[in-house]
Each structure stands twice: as C-alpha cells, then as structure tokens.
Amino acid sequence: MREKIIELQNITKTYDNGFTAVSDFNLYVKRGEFITFLGPSGCGKTTTLRMIAGFELPTEGKILLNGKDIANLPPYERPINTVFQRYALFPHMNIYENIAFGLRQKKMSEDVIKKKVKKVLELVDLEGFEKRSVATLSGGQQQRIAIARAVVNEPEILLLDEPLGALDLKMRKEMQLELKEMHERLGITFIYVTHDQEEALTMSDTIVVMSKGKIQQIGTPEDIYNEPKNAFVADFIGESNIFNGIMTGKLKARFGGGEFECVDDIEEGTLITAVVRPEDVIITTPQEGTIRGTVTSVIFKGIHYEIVVESGKNEMVIQSVRAPKVGEYVGMKVDPDNIHIMIAEDNTNYFMVDINSDHRLEFNGKILDTSVTKIIKGSRRLENGSIADSAGEVIDPQRTKISAAIHPRNIQMTDDISAGNVDGYISNLIYKGDHYSYVIHTDLDQDFIADDEYLWNMGDHVGLIMPVDKMTFKLVRK
Amino acid sequence: MHALKLTRKSLGIPYALFLLLFVAAPLIVLVYYAFTNGQGQFTVSNLTGFFTDPNTLGTLCYSFAIAVTTTVVCLLLAYPTAYILAKSNFKRKSVVVMLFIMPMWINFSLRITALKEILTLIEGNLAYYPFLNAVIGMTYDFLPFMILPIYNTIVKLDESLIEAAKDLGADERSAFFKITLPLSVPGIVSGIAMVFLPAMTNYVVLDMLYNSTYIMGSLIGSYFAAYNWHGGSMIALILLGIICAFTLATKGMEDEDGSAAGGALL
C-alpha cells in the first residue's frame, strides 16, 4: 500500500464567535492520490483545505505531513501549493514573473527558472505566453496559469479550491479531463475541493463527503454513488428516490407503497431508509410492476427523460430514454441489486427542560402543561412543597434537569411563531417520498428535526408545536 | 411661443454658462494681463522678468522645497497609518477613518491660528524656524488627503493575492514589499497629487503664520496688493503651468476610485 503522505487527526476549527466550521475531522491521504472534499456550501471543506495550506490554524488536532506535525507551520514553510478559486494571479506582473515567483523565493538561478517556466507552460498548453500580461488572458487561460504557477514548484501536495467554478460548462468539462491527465503525468498528490458532485465523481480516486463540518462518508466514487451510508450522502450524490420503510422479512422491504426484494440482509422489523436511483427504476405494465402509479410529468433533458410518477402518497422520479404519456397508469419495478437499504437514522429530538422554582417544567421560557410528578415515574410531592423521586431523594430544581425527547413526526410546524414551544429557521430539508424531513435551527443554537407532508422553504421562520403528551422524559442529575 | 424642449443638450446650458463665466473668462483675463504691460502692449517681459529676478525665482524654489518636503513627510506618516488601519479588524473601520477626517470640518483658519499658538509656545518665536513651521502647518492641513487614498487602495486589495504569495514561499516581509507595496502605488500617487499641488499653491499657511511673502501664493497676493496686475498674473500662469505639467505626468497612475472616495467625504 502506498504510504500516507498527509494525515489529519481530530482536526477541529472553532471561530471566536463560537461557530464550529470543522468538527473532529480524521483522514489520511495516500501519496499520489486524487482526493476530493465534496459537500454543500458551508460544510467546512474549504476551511479544512485552508488548514492544510496553512492559512488557518486548527483549534484542536494535528496535521501530520510525512509524520511531522505541521499544524503550526506558516504557509511559506510548507511544501504545499494552492490553486485559488479566483486564480489570485499577480496583476502587476506578467506571466513569466507570476510563474517564476515561487522559484525566485527559493533562490534558483535565472537559467534554471527560465527552463522550468518554459516546461510548465508546455504542460498547460500555453507555450510562448511568457511576456503576456494577466489582464489579456481569458478565464480558462488564467486558470491554467494559476495551475502552472503552483505546479512549477514541484510541491508534495497540490491543493485546488473549487478552481473550475468560474468557467463555463464546456470549458469546465475540458479542464476536468486535463486536470486528471496532469495528475497522472505529474504523480503529485491532489487534494480538490468542490460542491459539484459530478466533478468529484469524474476526477477523484477517493471522495470525502462533508456536511456541517463533519465527514459523512469516505470512499471511491462507485462506493459513494452505489452505497451511500446515510440519507445525506444519498441525497447529495446523484438524483435519488429516498423512502422511509421497514424490513418485512428476510431480504424483503416495504417502502414507497410496495414490498420489494432486496439484497441487504437486515433483521425483520427494523426501520429502514431505502434509496433507489432514478435510472434504476423500470417502467412496465401495471400488472408486472411491484408498485403502480400515474405519470404526472415528463420532461425532456437531452440525455434522458425525467418522469415523475405518483402512487398514493408517494412520488417516484425516473430517468429513462423512453417516455410514457402524462396521465398514463404504469407499473414500476426495481432490480434487487439497485435498491440500497440503510438502517434508519434515529431522528428523535433530545433537549433539556428546566425545573423552575415552582417545580413546574419550563422550556424556552414557556411553562409546559404537565408536572414533575406526572412525568417522572414514582415521584411524589412532599409536605414542604418539594418533590422526591422514586428512591425518596429530594429533587433540587437547581441541580436537576429533565431530558426530554420527541419524535419528528409528532412535531407540528406552524406559521404562528408564538404558538410553538420553540421557533427557528429551516436550514435543511430532504424529501422522503411521502413527506419532507426538515432541520430547524433555533435561537438556542439547537437543531430540531420535524416531519411534515407539506413543502416549506429553506430559511422559513417556523414555530414548532410539541404536544407534551408526545414527549418522553428522563431525570438528569448534574 | 414654443415650449423649451428639455433635451440633454439644453440641460447642459446652465453648466456651460457657469464654466464660461467663472472658469473661461477669468483664465482669458489672466492670460491677457500676463502678456501685456502697463501700456496695453503685448510683451513677454513679464515671463522673462520672473525667471531673471532672483526674488521671484527664489520664491518659486522655496515653495517647491516646502511642497516636496511636506509631501514626503505626509507620505511617511500616512502610509503606516493607512496600512495598519486597513489591515486591522475593527468592526467600524470607517468610523476610525472618519476620525482622521474630522479635523477638516473645523475651519482651517481657526486650526492654523491654534497651531500658531502651540508652535509659539514651543519655539518662542516662529521666525526662528520658518521652513519647519511651514512644513508642520501644511502637513497638519494635508495629512488626511494622503491617508485616505492610500487607505482606500490597500483596503481594496485582494487578500488572496497575499495568501498566494505566502503559499509560494514569501514570508510576511517579502509579501509586503513584492505584492502590497507595488499594488498600493496608485493610492500613493493619488495621495501625492492631493498634497503636492495644494502645497505648491498654498497661501494661507504662511500668511497666517508669518504674514510674509516667502511663497508663491503670498507672492501673487503681494503683487496684486501693489497693483501689479501683469506680474501677478504671469506668476499665477506659471503656477498653473506647473500644475498642468504635474497632472499630465501622473495621468493614468492615479487610483481614481480612491481619490474620488476621498473627495466625496469632503
């Protein structure tokens, strides 16, 4: 096995304002690998890259380069070079000066520099451009000069921060292949950052999927695509149909309104999440289909048709080269191989509830319509007004808290902010076939998960009504 | 009677009149007087006279020396200030910049009188160090004009350029001299233009400090006070010529946005 060139151990980055951009990040990269950090905006991928480059210092953790901890080394002492998102070419220098900059810092002789610059310009297909000024180049050309400027220093690791973001589609696809070729030719380790999953799947040896500062999954492009480890990865990579379901027997699962044969041997009765790619759904006659439904939309996308079939409360998105007619009643079936089953994440919400001086339960400034004695089994009120638990010990409001739990399906989302136990803004949503699963971020810096049939928008301000009788409680002594 | 058509051209008429009355006409008058003598005849004696009279020539050089020194002092004081301010992380940077500009809201004559008192307190008699006092007075007046364009240029510098330099092996010092400094030159040029030119023609500073005719501005004043319109006009024209030459020389090197922002604050 190739040796590890760089290893990130327990890397965490928290900013002064309390925001944690990266949390407990653990990863090793093999020499010569092309590895990509993939994730939506704000997931921490660029922050991690900048920590490897040296522009940010990790709050915790170690970065080992060939075994040595470089976490506190300034960027100019690391054998690592970066290709920036907006190229960052020096406007007051011509192309030759730009590329020669790093070599000059290393105090090489002019002859050697001249040869190296010429060679690297050949590599990026821009021979003869030495005397040109930066402003006269197109976006794609500037991009290649930025790459040349980094690569000419022969770094151990090349970092690329969404370098193709500013290019048009055709140019981007060309550059993707060129970068892959360059990687193979030079043999340098590439660490690439992007939010474009197609780009990641095309170029990488390994993909690290990130969300909210944490690693969601690490694997080869095929692994990530075919075997996503959780709903986030399944939703982010490629188009997916995601359903909540349950195992109904050996290699049998019920979801989407039908019972399917699958290849995952999970215990009967386990709640599961099933993922089916749109291109794996076969449209057939209603009799032959495992589930049936009506076609509600057919859109031509060039390479295929995008077809939506509604069956009962469920919606299935299908990609096919042949399209049925809108309104047609069809059957759908899926090869067991193409159904990916994951054990359902326990999305129960946990939060802390206070006991106030009147021995009433308080959450977010509002009194809950119940009492300590009702929710804690075996507790009773004493003569002096305080409350004792089942073991007879007095419950001290100051030193005891109650841990409450409520399931997403029992939370009701509402426009009326004041009606809810707590309120917040929708920060994420995933479609689960017959309902949406929302993540709501509150002022108390907590995230709640709520399920709702209806479509709310990202960023909506919602109130969450949490019926007390649907909560479960546990006593927690400090 | 036809209604006045509000075309774009016709909207320009008021400004054209203004230019004619307050810019073109005085200039024509100036040129007329500069090239004529007391009898109304055309002559270049005013021009030659200026450059042969040691008094007037001396005044020109003295003005020049004061202006250059003031400019250099302002640059040396303003650049570090502007740099530190631009790179700082204050939440309300613009407020701090305002603090530097605020003295200008107080009438300059008042400020220079106050400065006169302070300098007299320190030196005893202002006449001992005329050059130094002139430079101090002008620096006091013009420093914000140097700080502002430099600050604006540095603050707008792309941070990733510095990061790229460090990424390629340059330490903080190297990155400053190779990237920040060269790229802040437009701001420096703007600042120099905004200090040097007024310093060359400044009249009030020395007048209030000394009541003297050591510099160009006061020289013109003294000529006119003696009713020598021709000589005075020629001096004014020469000054105008120097300014034009300087402006043409630095054309294109200025940071237009920076000085515009500075001007807007005034």
Q: Brief description of this entry?
A:
With 478 residues, chain A is α+β, with helices and mostly antiparallel strands.
What this model shows, in words?
The complex is a heterodimer of chains A (478) and B (266). Helices cover 18% and strands 40% of the residues of chain A. Chain A is of the alpha+beta class. Chain A has 3 domains: 4-226, Rossmann fold, CATH 3.40.50.300; 239-343, Nucleic acid-binding proteins (OB fold (Dihydrolipoamide Acetyltransferase, E2P)); 349-477, Nucleic acid-binding proteins (OB fold (Dihydrolipoamide Acetyltransferase, E2P), Beta Barrel). In chain A, the strands form 7 sheets. A 6-stranded mixed sheet of chain A has the order 6-7-8-3-9-10, sandwiched between helices. Chain A starts with a strand and ends with a strand. Chain B is mostly helical. Chain B has a domain at 65-212 and 255-265: Orthogonal Bundle (MetI-like fold). The longest helix of chain B is centred in the first third of the chain and has 34 residues, at 54-87. Chain B is globular. Mean pLDDT of chain B is 81; it is low at 261-266. At the A-B interface, strand 6 and helix 2 of A face helix 8 and helix 9 of B.
Q: Identify low-pLDDT runs of chain A.
A: none
CATH superfamily of one domain in chain B: MetI-like
- The residue-averaged pLDDT of chain A reads 88
- Straight-line distance between termini of chain A: 49 Å
